[in-house]
Amino acid sequence: MRHIEPKQRWCPHVAWREFWLKEPARNADKGNSDWCAVATLTVISGIELVAGVFAALTSVRMWRSGLHRRYPFLFAYLVFQVPYSIWPAIMDIHSRGYFWVWVFSEPVSWIFEIAVVRELCGLVLERYRGLCSLGRWSMYGSVALSAAISLASLLPRIPSALTQRSRLLFYWYGGDRGVHLALAIFLLLMLLLASRYPVPLNRNVVLNAAMFTALFFGGTLASLLRTIFDLRAGHGLDVALTASSAASLIAWFFTLTPEGERDRVELAHFRPEDEARILQRLDQIDRFVLRLPRHICAHSADAIVRGEGQIT
What is the spatial distance between Cα 258 and Cα 9, in angstroms, rounded to a whole number? Predict the structure, then answer.
Protein backbone atom coordinates (compact mmCIF):
# COMPACT_ATOMS: atom_id res chain seq x y z
CA MET A 1 0.00 0.00 0.00
CA ARG A 2 1.45 3.32 -1.05
CA HIS A 3 2.15 6.21 1.26
CA ILE A 4 -0.76 8.60 1.79
CA GLU A 5 -0.06 12.20 0.92
CA PRO A 6 -2.08 14.80 2.82
CA LYS A 7 -2.25 17.04 -0.23
CA GLN A 8 -5.59 18.70 -0.80
CA ARG A 9 -6.38 20.51 2.39
CA TRP A 10 -10.05 20.45 1.47
CA CYS A 11 -10.16 16.77 0.46
CA PRO A 12 -7.10 14.52 0.11
CA HIS A 13 -8.34 12.60 -2.92
CA VAL A 14 -5.33 10.32 -3.22
CA ALA A 15 -6.01 8.50 0.03
CA TRP A 16 -9.77 8.43 -0.33
CA ARG A 17 -9.79 7.01 -3.83
CA GLU A 18 -7.50 4.21 -2.69
CA PHE A 19 -9.29 3.26 0.53
CA TRP A 20 -12.93 4.04 -0.15
CA LEU A 21 -13.10 2.49 -3.60
CA LYS A 22 -11.06 -0.47 -2.26
CA GLU A 23 -9.51 -1.30 -5.63
CA PRO A 24 -5.95 -0.68 -6.79
CA ALA A 25 -5.24 1.33 -9.88
CA ARG A 26 -5.00 -0.77 -13.02
CA ASN A 27 -1.60 -0.91 -14.70
CA ALA A 28 -3.05 0.18 -18.02
CA ASP A 29 -4.39 3.36 -16.45
CA LYS A 30 -1.37 4.11 -14.27
CA GLY A 31 0.33 6.45 -16.72
CA ASN A 32 -2.85 8.41 -17.42
CA SER A 33 -3.67 8.57 -13.69
CA ASP A 34 -0.21 9.89 -12.85
CA TRP A 35 -0.46 12.51 -15.57
CA CYS A 36 -3.87 13.63 -14.27
CA ALA A 37 -2.53 13.84 -10.71
CA VAL A 38 0.44 15.98 -11.80
CA ALA A 39 -1.79 18.23 -13.90
CA THR A 40 -4.28 18.57 -11.04
CA LEU A 41 -1.60 19.52 -8.52
CA THR A 42 -0.18 22.09 -10.95
CA VAL A 43 -3.56 23.71 -11.50
CA ILE A 44 -4.39 23.66 -7.77
CA SER A 45 -1.01 25.19 -6.88
CA GLY A 46 -1.64 28.05 -9.30
CA ILE A 47 -5.14 28.66 -7.92
CA GLU A 48 -3.82 28.58 -4.35
CA LEU A 49 -1.22 31.24 -5.16
CA VAL A 50 -3.95 33.45 -6.63
CA ALA A 51 -6.07 32.86 -3.51
CA GLY A 52 -3.19 33.84 -1.24
CA VAL A 53 -2.57 37.05 -3.18
CA PHE A 54 -6.22 38.11 -3.01
CA ALA A 55 -6.44 37.19 0.67
CA ALA A 56 -3.51 39.55 1.30
CA LEU A 57 -5.02 42.31 -0.85
CA THR A 58 -8.40 42.00 0.87
CA SER A 59 -6.75 42.13 4.31
CA VAL A 60 -4.88 45.31 3.38
CA ARG A 61 -8.05 46.85 1.99
CA MET A 62 -10.00 46.03 5.16
CA TRP A 63 -7.26 47.57 7.29
CA ARG A 64 -7.13 50.78 5.25
CA SER A 65 -10.92 51.15 5.17
CA GLY A 66 -11.36 50.41 8.89
CA LEU A 67 -13.55 47.36 8.26
CA HIS A 68 -11.15 45.25 10.33
CA ARG A 69 -12.68 46.85 13.44
CA ARG A 70 -16.18 45.87 12.34
CA TYR A 71 -15.16 42.32 11.31
CA PRO A 72 -12.12 41.41 13.45
CA PHE A 73 -12.53 37.64 13.09
CA LEU A 74 -13.09 37.86 9.33
CA PHE A 75 -9.98 40.03 9.09
CA ALA A 76 -7.97 37.49 11.10
CA TYR A 77 -9.37 34.69 8.91
CA LEU A 78 -8.23 36.47 5.74
CA VAL A 79 -4.77 37.12 7.18
CA PHE A 80 -4.52 33.43 8.05
CA GLN A 81 -5.58 32.52 4.50
CA VAL A 82 -2.41 34.10 3.09
CA PRO A 83 0.06 31.48 4.40
CA TYR A 84 -2.66 28.81 4.48
CA SER A 85 -3.19 29.19 0.72
CA ILE A 86 0.43 29.61 -0.29
CA TRP A 87 2.36 27.02 1.73
CA PRO A 88 0.88 23.94 -0.03
CA ALA A 89 2.11 25.34 -3.35
CA ILE A 90 5.71 25.85 -2.23
CA MET A 91 6.35 22.79 -0.02
CA ASP A 92 7.21 19.27 -1.08
CA ILE A 93 3.97 17.32 -0.72
CA HIS A 94 5.91 14.09 -0.06
CA SER A 95 7.83 15.51 2.89
CA ARG A 96 7.20 14.84 6.56
CA GLY A 97 7.20 18.60 7.19
CA TYR A 98 4.29 19.05 4.77
CA PHE A 99 2.27 16.44 6.63
CA TRP A 100 2.76 18.00 10.05
CA VAL A 101 2.12 21.54 8.82
CA TRP A 102 -1.14 20.26 7.35
CA VAL A 103 -2.04 18.43 10.58
CA PHE A 104 -1.56 21.53 12.74
CA SER A 105 -3.04 24.05 10.29
CA GLU A 106 -6.37 22.26 9.81
CA PRO A 107 -7.64 22.69 13.42
CA VAL A 108 -6.49 26.31 13.32
CA SER A 109 -8.57 26.79 10.18
CA TRP A 110 -11.63 25.28 11.92
CA ILE A 111 -11.18 27.67 14.85
CA PHE A 112 -11.08 30.67 12.52
CA GLU A 113 -14.18 29.47 10.65
CA ILE A 114 -16.12 28.94 13.89
CA ALA A 115 -15.05 32.41 15.07
CA VAL A 116 -16.21 33.99 11.81
CA VAL A 117 -19.63 32.31 12.05
CA ARG A 118 -19.87 33.43 15.69
CA GLU A 119 -19.14 36.97 14.53
CA LEU A 120 -21.81 36.78 11.83
CA CYS A 121 -24.33 35.55 14.38
CA GLY A 122 -23.56 38.56 16.54
CA LEU A 123 -23.98 40.93 13.59
CA VAL A 124 -27.25 39.43 12.39
CA LEU A 125 -28.73 39.43 15.91
CA GLU A 126 -26.94 42.58 17.02
CA ARG A 127 -30.05 44.07 18.65
CA TYR A 128 -31.04 40.87 20.44
CA ARG A 129 -28.45 39.83 23.02
CA GLY A 130 -30.45 36.91 24.35
CA LEU A 131 -31.10 35.33 20.95
CA CYS A 132 -27.49 36.00 19.96
CA SER A 133 -26.16 34.16 23.02
CA LEU A 134 -28.59 31.29 22.43
CA GLY A 135 -27.53 31.08 18.79
CA ARG A 136 -23.83 31.00 19.63
CA TRP A 137 -24.19 28.22 22.19
CA SER A 138 -26.38 26.28 19.77
CA MET A 139 -23.64 26.61 17.15
CA TYR A 140 -20.97 25.31 19.55
CA GLY A 141 -23.11 22.32 20.47
CA SER A 142 -24.03 21.50 16.89
CA VAL A 143 -20.39 21.68 15.74
CA ALA A 144 -19.25 19.34 18.52
CA LEU A 145 -22.11 16.89 17.87
CA SER A 146 -21.65 16.93 14.10
CA ALA A 147 -17.90 16.37 14.33
CA ALA A 148 -18.41 13.48 16.77
CA ILE A 149 -21.00 11.82 14.51
CA SER A 150 -18.80 12.29 11.45
CA LEU A 151 -15.81 10.71 13.18
CA ALA A 152 -17.93 7.86 14.53
CA SER A 153 -19.24 7.10 11.04
CA LEU A 154 -15.68 6.86 9.69
CA LEU A 155 -14.16 4.65 12.39
CA PRO A 156 -15.66 1.32 11.19
CA ARG A 157 -14.39 1.96 7.66
CA ILE A 158 -10.75 2.67 8.51
CA PRO A 159 -8.53 -0.31 7.59
CA SER A 160 -6.73 -1.77 10.59
CA ALA A 161 -3.42 -1.99 8.70
CA LEU A 162 -3.06 1.77 8.39
CA THR A 163 -0.16 3.58 10.03
CA GLN A 164 -0.75 6.18 12.73
CA ARG A 165 -0.11 9.04 10.30
CA SER A 166 -2.61 7.63 7.83
CA ARG A 167 -5.21 7.22 10.59
CA LEU A 168 -4.68 10.83 11.57
CA LEU A 169 -5.58 11.82 8.04
CA PHE A 170 -8.93 10.07 8.36
CA TYR A 171 -9.65 11.61 11.76
CA TRP A 172 -8.91 15.10 10.49
CA TYR A 173 -10.99 14.51 7.39
CA GLY A 174 -13.97 13.37 9.45
CA GLY A 175 -13.67 16.38 11.74
CA ASP A 176 -13.48 18.72 8.77
CA ARG A 177 -16.65 17.28 7.28
CA GLY A 178 -18.55 17.50 10.56
CA VAL A 179 -17.47 21.07 11.34
CA HIS A 180 -18.32 22.38 7.88
CA LEU A 181 -21.71 20.65 7.76
CA ALA A 182 -22.72 22.08 11.15
CA LEU A 183 -21.57 25.60 10.26
CA ALA A 184 -23.33 25.48 6.89
CA ILE A 185 -26.64 24.39 8.43
CA PHE A 186 -26.35 27.01 11.17
CA LEU A 187 -25.72 29.82 8.67
CA LEU A 188 -28.57 28.64 6.46
CA LEU A 189 -31.00 28.58 9.40
CA MET A 190 -29.81 32.02 10.48
CA LEU A 191 -30.45 33.43 7.00
CA LEU A 192 -33.88 31.80 6.96
CA LEU A 193 -34.63 33.41 10.33
CA ALA A 194 -33.54 36.78 8.99
CA SER A 195 -35.80 36.29 5.95
CA ARG A 196 -38.83 35.67 8.19
CA TYR A 197 -38.32 38.69 10.45
CA PRO A 198 -37.59 42.34 9.65
CA VAL A 199 -34.04 42.16 11.02
CA PRO A 200 -31.95 45.10 9.71
CA LEU A 201 -28.90 43.83 7.82
CA ASN A 202 -26.31 45.50 5.63
CA ARG A 203 -24.95 44.18 2.35
CA ASN A 204 -21.60 43.10 3.79
CA VAL A 205 -23.18 40.86 6.43
CA VAL A 206 -25.49 39.19 3.91
CA LEU A 207 -22.58 38.73 1.50
CA ASN A 208 -20.35 37.11 4.14
CA ALA A 209 -23.09 34.80 5.40
CA ALA A 210 -24.06 33.70 1.87
CA MET A 211 -20.49 33.03 0.74
CA PHE A 212 -19.53 31.04 3.84
CA THR A 213 -22.73 29.01 3.55
CA ALA A 214 -21.90 28.15 -0.07
CA LEU A 215 -18.29 27.27 0.78
CA PHE A 216 -19.22 25.03 3.71
CA PHE A 217 -21.97 23.23 1.80
CA GLY A 218 -19.69 22.78 -1.21
CA GLY A 219 -16.99 21.14 0.89
CA THR A 220 -19.50 18.91 2.64
CA LEU A 221 -21.12 17.86 -0.65
CA ALA A 222 -17.75 16.92 -2.11
CA SER A 223 -16.99 14.82 0.95
CA LEU A 224 -20.28 12.97 0.64
CA LEU A 225 -19.77 12.35 -3.08
CA ARG A 226 -16.46 10.65 -2.32
CA THR A 227 -17.21 8.69 0.82
CA ILE A 228 -20.84 7.65 0.31
CA PHE A 229 -21.30 7.31 -3.44
CA ASP A 230 -17.68 6.41 -4.27
CA LEU A 231 -17.60 8.77 -7.23
CA ARG A 232 -14.35 8.69 -9.19
CA ALA A 233 -14.17 12.43 -9.66
CA GLY A 234 -11.41 13.27 -7.19
CA HIS A 235 -9.35 15.48 -9.49
CA GLY A 236 -12.31 17.53 -10.70
CA LEU A 237 -13.69 17.99 -7.18
CA ASP A 238 -10.33 19.15 -5.84
CA VAL A 239 -9.96 21.74 -8.58
CA ALA A 240 -13.56 22.90 -8.15
CA LEU A 241 -13.23 23.30 -4.36
CA THR A 242 -9.93 25.15 -4.64
CA ALA A 243 -11.36 27.41 -7.34
CA SER A 244 -14.48 28.17 -5.26
CA SER A 245 -12.34 29.21 -2.28
CA ALA A 246 -10.22 31.44 -4.51
CA ALA A 247 -13.35 32.90 -6.11
CA SER A 248 -14.73 33.81 -2.67
CA LEU A 249 -11.50 35.65 -1.80
CA ILE A 250 -11.64 37.54 -5.10
CA ALA A 251 -15.30 38.39 -4.45
CA TRP A 252 -14.44 39.72 -0.99
CA PHE A 253 -11.77 41.96 -2.49
CA PHE A 254 -14.23 43.62 -4.88
CA THR A 255 -17.43 43.64 -2.80
CA LEU A 256 -16.42 44.02 0.86
CA THR A 257 -16.43 47.82 1.01
CA PRO A 258 -17.39 50.61 3.44
CA GLU A 259 -20.35 51.35 1.16
CA GLY A 260 -21.64 47.86 1.91
CA GLU A 261 -22.05 48.89 5.55
CA ARG A 262 -24.46 51.63 4.53
CA ASP A 263 -26.44 49.63 1.97
CA ARG A 264 -29.35 47.96 3.75
CA VAL A 265 -30.72 44.64 2.53
CA GLU A 266 -34.31 43.67 3.28
CA LEU A 267 -34.74 39.93 3.14
CA ALA A 268 -38.36 40.22 4.26
CA HIS A 269 -40.96 42.83 3.33
CA PHE A 270 -43.82 43.65 5.69
CA ARG A 271 -46.40 46.36 6.07
CA PRO A 272 -45.46 48.93 8.73
CA GLU A 273 -48.07 47.70 11.21
CA ASP A 274 -47.03 44.06 10.70
CA GLU A 275 -43.36 44.95 11.06
CA ALA A 276 -43.98 46.71 14.39
CA ARG A 277 -45.95 43.73 15.69
CA ILE A 278 -43.30 41.21 14.63
CA LEU A 279 -40.46 43.27 16.12
CA GLN A 280 -42.39 43.54 19.39
CA ARG A 281 -42.78 39.76 19.46
CA LEU A 282 -39.08 39.32 18.73
CA ASP A 283 -38.23 41.67 21.61
CA GLN A 284 -40.44 39.63 23.93
CA ILE A 285 -38.68 36.40 22.92
CA ASP A 286 -35.30 38.04 23.43
CA ARG A 287 -36.21 39.27 26.92
CA PHE A 288 -37.51 35.82 27.83
CA VAL A 289 -34.23 34.21 26.73
CA LEU A 290 -32.25 36.77 28.75
CA ARG A 291 -34.31 36.03 31.89
CA LEU A 292 -34.19 32.27 31.42
CA PRO A 293 -30.75 31.66 33.02
CA ARG A 294 -31.74 33.67 36.10
CA HIS A 295 -34.95 31.65 36.48
CA ILE A 296 -33.03 28.40 36.14
CA CYS A 297 -30.47 29.50 38.73
CA ALA A 298 -33.22 30.64 41.10
CA HIS A 299 -35.11 27.35 40.80
CA SER A 300 -31.87 25.39 41.29
CA ALA A 301 -31.06 27.39 44.42
CA ASP A 302 -34.56 26.82 45.80
CA ALA A 303 -34.28 23.09 45.15
CA ILE A 304 -30.92 22.95 46.94
CA VAL A 305 -32.34 24.85 49.93
CA ARG A 306 -35.37 22.56 50.12
CA GLY A 307 -33.14 19.53 49.88
CA GLU A 308 -30.92 20.74 52.71
CA GLY A 309 -33.99 21.49 54.83
CA GLN A 310 -35.29 17.95 54.35
CA ILE A 311 -31.91 16.51 55.34
CA THR A 312 -31.71 18.58 58.53
Answer: 32
Domain boundaries, the chain: 13-269, 272-312
d(CA 74, CA 81): 10
This prediction's pTM: 0.80
Per-residue pLDDT of the chain (312 residues; tens, 9 = 90+): 334 444 443 334 444 443 443 434 444 444 455 566 667 777 888 888 899 999 999 999 999 999 999 999 999 999 999 998 888 777 777 778 888 888 889 899 999 999 999 999 999 888 888 888 888 999 999 999 999 998 888 777 777 776 777 777 778 888 888 999 999 999 999 888 888 777 778 999 999 999 999 989 887 887 777 666 555 556 677 788 888 889 999 999 999 999 999 888 876 666 666 667 777 787 787 788 777 765 554 444 344 434 444 444
How buried is 233 (Cβ within 10 angstroms: 0-12 exposed, 13-18 middle, 19+ buried)? middle
Length of the chain as a residue count: 312
CATH classification code of 13-269:
1.20.1070
Task: Give which of 212, 150, 145, 152 is closest to 175, Cα–Cα.
Answer: 150
